[in-house]
Amino acid sequence: MTGIVESIGGGAISAMSSFRSTIFAAAVTIFKAFNKEICNSASFSVLISQIYFTAVEILPMFIAISVLLGTLVMGILFQTIKEIGLDQHLGRILVGFAVTELSPFVTVLLLALRSSSAINTEIAVMKVNREIDTLTAFRIDADRYLFIPRIVNGMISLVLLNGLFSIILVTSGLIFSKLIFGMGLATYSQILAGSVHLSDSIILVAKCLTFGFFITLIPILSGLRATYDVTTIPVSVLHGMIRVFLAIILIEVLSLVARFI
Amino acid sequence: MPVSTDYPLISNLTVWQNVALIRQYHDRLSKKEARKRVQSYLERLDVGGSAEKRNPQLSAEERFKIMMLRASMIDDAIILVSDPFRMLPHHRNASFLYDVAIMLDDLYTQCHIFDYSSNQDRYRTNNAPQH
């Protein structure tokens, strides 16, 4: 019995310690991001190449998934709305569920699967190969050169890809509103415009930025936990990805609380 | 600045990017200007054609030259070469090492070589510096 309690206590202390160190690292990163030393062509090159790998290379797969999932979800959603007679709430459901909740959640999952794991592995490999030590030896701040450009890229990419997913959802909605409700473009636009609230939009952008920040920061921190032993790379990626998914759930819950209180 | 196997070239950067990074970061040189300067240094070392290569594609000699050049990129650099025959395993003496150091001697203030005493004889070459 004592062993079980000790085990639960140990796990809780470890989780709290990990949470505290992530929040501390987030604060340090934000502080450093606003320092003028970040402005150099090397960091800018890293940012541009990261945006290419994260937001451009993924486009064909992202658009295909968005069209497939978006069409399916919107078709089911509109059909259900018609069946249970909630036609008058169509706009609110479309904006409140599809655009504000579904779109960022699918976007962050796709980016986490593709980019977070890649960033985690890249940083762990750099640590094992002593390349992080090389940067330190040449007085190059890894935070400013390696990490902040990746985090800024995560935030920019998530906002942009979320926008793209939302556009595809809304376009699918236009097709299904015509097919199911016989609605024209003018009526559909009017319903949409009447359902968008400023507070929802602010929460949506803040949520995307927070998602983008943590799905890049956590893999970086996890990659840095690797030692000089190659076998620590998969362990670091495993732990990093679990933390990323826990962070996604936590941010989603907090954003829901913020929207509905 | 270290020249050692403990401080390798960054593997996801090309040769010129590895060298230019120091000037881009510390002196805030533009990418274009840094590239131009690095290319001239690479040509001086006779490795201009390797500018777009990455670390695993380099020969031991090319890698050593690039690491020496990178270490020279810091202003008033003091270069510390550690255990060079680990980087140049096929070389019997330090002749090549001295040649590279002489080719770059206007870019650094001092160059110190640290090695095991068992390798002492390998440093007695015709082109060995006085100090």
Biggest sheet of chain A, in brief?
none
Radius of gyration of chain A: 21 Å
Quaternary structure state of the chains depicted: heterodimer
Number of structural units classed as domains of chain B: 1
Which structural class matches the secondary elements of chain A?
mainly alpha
Helix content range of the residues of chain B, please? 25-40%
Concise summary:
Chain A is mostly helical.
Give an overview in words.
The complex is a heterodimer of chains A (261) and B (131). Chain A has one domain. Chain A is globular. Chain A contains 9 helices and no strands. Chain A has helices spanning 2-33, 41-56, 59-83, 90-128, 131-137, 142-181, 185-195, 198-224, 232-260. Chain A has 261 residues and is mainly alpha-helical. In chain A, helix 4 packs parallel to helix 8 (198-224), helix 6 (142-181) packs across helix 8 (198-224) and helix 8 (198-224) runs antiparallel to helix 9 (232-260). The two termini of chain A are 40 Å apart. In chain B, 40% of the residues lie in helices and 11% in strands. Chain B has one domain (2-123): P-loop containing nucleotide triphosphate hydrolases (Rossmann fold, 3-Layer(aba) Sandwich). Chain B has 5 helices and 3 strands; from the N terminus they run βαααβααβ. Chain B is of the alpha/beta class and 131 residues long. Chain B has a 3-stranded parallel sheet, covered by helices on one side. Chain B has helices at 15-26, 31-44, 60-72, 84-87, 95-103, and strands spanning 2-3, 77-82, 108-114. The chains are: A mainly alpha (261), B alpha/beta (131). The A-B interface holds A 39-43, 45, 122, 125-126, 129-131, 133-135, 137-140, 145 and B 1-2, 6-12, 17, 20-22, 24-26, 28-31, 34, 70, 74.
